C-alpha cells in the first residue's frame, strides 16, 4: 500500500485524488489546500486541511499547484527527507526544496474539469533524484493504470513543448477550419471524421509517412487556388508557413 | 438497384469500387481506365475496359481521376444526357461537359492505398445541376452507408481548403512534435494519447471552447521558455504564428 498526500485543488489534483481513491493499493492520507472551501466537498471521505504544519507522514506528497507556486510551497513543507513530487511539465525537479527527496510525476494529457479521466490511457513521465524513489513512483503510476516512462528534465521540457504543437496548435487549426466553413455557411460537422482519421493515422505510422495533400505533392495549382480563396490575412499566413514547412520536410522547393 | 460505371483507377476509384461491390442495392456495370493493367486484377468480378467508346448505359458514371484530367475526360464521353459525377473537392460541377447531366460526389476523407475504408464514417458532399439527380446520388451514398450532405460548389471548395488545415497542416504539427521529441531522444509514442484526445474533444465541443495552454491564458513566462528551447528557426516561426493566432481568437494581446 502506498500512502499519498495531495497538495492543491486544481484539475490535476482533483483527477489524481479521484483515481487514487479507486486504486486498491493506494491510500490518500490527507488532502491539503490553502483554501479549504475548494476541497470541502470531499471532507466526509478524506481528511482535509489548510494547515501546512499539520501534514502527516506519507510515502508520497503530490504537489499539483500552479507552476509559479511549486518552489515556494515545497520550501514551506514542515519536514525533510520525504518524497515530494510535482506534476508539471515545465518545472525542473531541482526547483523543489533540496531538503526533500524530490521527483516529478507528470501526466501528459489534457485535463478538463468536469470530464472523467481514464488514467489507463495516460502516459506518466517519471523523474527522481534517488533511484529508490523511482520505483515507488513507478508502482504508484501503475497502481492507477498508467503506462510509465522514465523521462529526464530536458526530455520532459521537450515533451511539454511538443504537446503545445499537437494539442493547442492543432486545436487552433481546427478553429481556423471552423472559421473557413462557417464563412460559407457549411457545417463544421463534415470535417469531424477527417479530424479523427488524421489523429488515428499517426498512431500506427509516422507523421512523415502519413503526409498527403497539395503541399507534399507540390501541386502549385491547388495551392494558388487555396490562397486565392483565403481572404483572412491571418489564415493566409498560416497556410503559407505550414505549406513551406511540409515542403521543407519532404524536400520540395519553397513556395 | 443503381447501376454505376467507374472511371479511373486511383485510391478513390478503388475504394468506391470495393464498397459498391458489397452494397446490396448497387451494381457495378463496368470499370474503365485508360491503362487496363491498373484494374486487371478485378477482371473476373467486373467487366473492365480501356475503350471509352465501349461504355455501356448506367445510372451513374463516377469519374475518379486527377483533377486536371476531369474536364477533358468528360468531354470524351460518347453519350449525352446521362448522369456523370466527379469526386473532387476543388473542381466545379460546371467543369464537366455541358452535354451531360452533371453532379459531384465528394467523399471528405483521406484515403490510403492499402488500408480498408469504412464508408459509414465518411461524409459525402453532393451537388447536382438537376434536382432529380440529387435524389439518385443521395440514394447511392446511403447505399454504401455514408452520411450525405447537400453542399454547393463554394461550400465544397471551403471544405476542401479547411480539410488541408485539419489534415495536412495538423499532420505537419505532429511531424514538428516528432522532430522536437527526437532531438531529446524521447519517444514520440508518449504524445499519441494527447493527439487522440485533442481530436476527440472537438467532436463534442467547439475548437474555441476546447482551447487551453500558454497562448490562451497569455502565460508569457512559459511562452518565453518554449521559444528559448526551440533552436530550429522554422519551428520557432510556427510557434510564434500559431500563438499569435490563438491570442487573436481569444482576445489576448499580441505576442
TrEMBL record, chains A, B:
Q: Which residues form the Pyrroline-5-carboxylate reductase catalytic N-terminal domain?
A: 4-86
Q: In what residue span(s) does the DUF2520 domain sit?
A: 122-245
User: What is the superkingdom listed in this entry's lineage?
Assistant: Bacteria
Gene3D superfamilies per the UniProt record, alphabetical: NAD(P)-binding Rossmann-like Domain (3.40.50.720), ProC-like, C-terminal domain (1.10.1040.20)
Q: What PANTHER family would the database entry show?
A: CONSERVED HYPOTHETICAL ALANINE AND LEUCINE RICH PROTEIN (PTHR40459)
- Protein known as: DUF2520 domain-containing protein
Q: Which organism is it from?
A: Gaetbulibacter jejuensis
Amino acid at each position: 500500500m502506498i500512502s499519498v498526500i495531495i497538495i492543491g485543488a486544481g484539475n490535476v489534483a482533483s483527477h489524481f485524488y479521484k483515481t487514487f481513491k479507486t486504486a486498491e493499493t493506494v491510500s490518500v492520507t490527507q488532502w491539503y489546500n490553502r483554501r479549504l472551501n475548494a476541497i470541502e466537498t470531499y471532507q466526509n471521505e478524506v481528511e482535509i486541511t489548510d494547515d501546512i504544519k499539520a501534514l502527516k507522514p506519507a510515502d508520497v506528497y503530490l504537489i499539483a499547484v500552479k507552476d509559479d507556486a511549486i518552489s515556494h510551497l515545497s520550501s514551506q513543507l514542515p519536514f525533510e527527507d520525504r518524497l515530494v513530487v510535482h506534476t508539471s511539465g515545465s518545472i525542473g525537479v531541482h526547483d523543489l526544496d533540496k531538503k526533500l527527496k524530490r521527483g516529478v510525476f507528470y501526466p501528459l494529457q489534457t485535463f478538463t474539469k468536469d470530464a472523467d479521466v481514464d488514467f489507463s490511457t495516460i502516459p506518466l513521465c517519471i523523474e527522481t533524484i534517488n533511484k529508490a524513489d523511482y520505483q515507488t513512483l513507478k508502482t504508484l503510476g501503475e497502481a492507477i493504470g498508467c503506462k510509465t516512462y522514465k523521462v529526464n528534465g530536458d526530455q520532459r521540457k521537450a515533451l511539454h513543448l511538443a504537446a503545445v504543437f499537437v494539442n493547442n496548435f492543432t486545436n487552433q487549426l481546427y478553429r481556423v477550419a471552423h472559421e473557413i466553413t462557417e464563412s460559407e455557411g457549411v457545417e463544421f460537422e463534415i470535417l469531424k471524421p477527417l479530424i479523427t482519421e488524421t489523429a488515428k493515422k499517426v498512431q500506427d505510422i509516422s507523421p512523415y509517412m502519413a503526409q498527403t495533400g497539395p503541399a507534399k505533392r507540390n501541386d502549385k495549382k491547388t495551392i494558388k487556388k487555396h490562397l486565392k480563396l483565403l481572404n483572412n490575412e491571418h489564415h493566409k499566413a498560416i497556410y503559407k508557413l505550414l505549406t513551406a514547412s511540409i515542403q521543407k520536410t519532404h524536400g520540395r522547393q519553397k513556395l
